[in-house]
Amino acid sequence: xxxxxxxxMLRGEGVSLxxxxxxxxxxxxxxxxxxxxxxxxxxxxxVGPIPGELMLLGSILFxxxxxTFAIVTLYLDRAKHGxxxxxxxxG
Length: 91
Fold this sequence. Notes:
With 91 residues, the protein is mainly alpha-helical. The protein contains four helices and no strands.
């Protein structure tokens, strides 16, 4: 996509339709293939020069941090308010 769409657009050129790129892109979007093994998952996870292993690790850390934040917030809220009914209403 970068070499066939964005690069020509940034150079002020038109998008080339002669090399079959739009058909390949359409096929990838309409007929995705499942991941067969862990190696393919890592290969697909890579973004430019960033290896797939690093992207997956970053994703796990990012989502884990949000899950931890949610659990800690829930624990602190329950510790502060206990089992009291909530008397706050919006609107």
